[in-house]
């Protein structure tokens, strides 16, 4: 038996590392969200000064926090689950549910979102769309591209989760421990 991981597990490792790195980087933007929002409020209500560019930068960061870190959240199994039975299932049965959820819901939704947003993002890039507000940022096309970042990262994480679930079902990876309490 070889000590090197199989190709699929190597792919899993790379996808998981990329999404973890992206998620951690995006999570640090929450510090900017707090500071940026505080500065905008102080400027507006304390000094009567509008800060359109900073306000828009906060919106861009907000989009990145949620859409850039979504795959990392999925990887960590930290998404909200509304289930009655799943937590009581064995590890292998959970893997079957994971496969079905990825194949029937996650991947089709990602593919649809990618298809539906492609022209929207592409048209924005074609014109290098900027803010319609005076003093706003000139990078709306980059903000809209965050949608495709969401699609790609979630699709890759779905593939990673599928591979891991298949390995659990076939007994080549240990099933996650189930907490029945």
Tell me what you see in this structure:
By secondary structure, the chain is an all-alpha fold. The protein has one domain (7-78, 89-170). 71% of the residues lie in helices and 0% in strands. It contains six helices and no strands. The protein has helices at residues 7-27, 29-47, 52-68, 70-75, 91-126, 140-169. Helix 1 crosses helix 6 and helix 3 runs parallel beside helix 6 (140-169). It is elongated. It starts with 6 loop residues before the first helix and ends in a 12-residue tail after the last helix. The mean pLDDT is 92.
Provide a brief overview of the structure:
The chain has 181 residues and is mainly α.
Quantity of strands, as a count: 0
What ranges have pLDDT less than 50 throughout 5 or more consecutive residues?
Answer: none
Nearest-integer average pLDDT: 92
How would you describe the shape?
elongated
Query: How large, in whole angstroms, is the Cα Rg?
Result: 20 Å
What is the number of helices? Answer: 6
Order of helices and strands: HHHHHH
Distance between the termini: 38 Å
Beta-strand portion reads under 5%
Helix content: over 70%
* Total domains: 1
Q: Characterize the main sheet.
A: none
Structural class: mainly alpha
Helix-strand layout with pairing:
Layout: H1 7-27, H2 29-47, H3 52-68, H4 70-75, H5 91-126, H6 140-169
Helix pairs in contact: 1-3, 1-6, 2-3, 3-6, 5-6
């Amino acid at each position: 038996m070889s000590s090197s991981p199989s190709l699929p597990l190597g792919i899993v490792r790379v996808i998981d590392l990329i999404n973890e790195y992206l998620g951690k980087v995006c999570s640090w933007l929450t510090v900017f969200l707090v500071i940026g929002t505080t500065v905008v409020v102080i400027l507006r209500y304390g000094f009567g000064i509008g800060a359109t560019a900073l306000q828009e930068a906060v919106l861009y960061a907000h989009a990145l926090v949620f859409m850039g870190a979504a795959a990392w959240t999925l990887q960590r199994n930290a998404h909200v689950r509304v289930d009655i039975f799943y937590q009581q299932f064995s590890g292998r049965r959970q893997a079957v549910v994971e496969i079905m959820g990825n194949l029937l819901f996650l991947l089709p939704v990602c593919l649809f979102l990618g298809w539906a947003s492609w022209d929207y993002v592409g048209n924005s890039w074609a014109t290098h769309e900027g803010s319609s507000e005076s003093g706003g940022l000139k990078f709306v096309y980059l903000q809209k591209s965050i949608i495709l970042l969401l699609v790609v990262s979630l699709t890759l994480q779905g593939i990673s989760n599928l591979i891991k679930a298949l390995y659990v079902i076939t007994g080549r990876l240990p099933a996650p421990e189930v907490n029945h309490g």
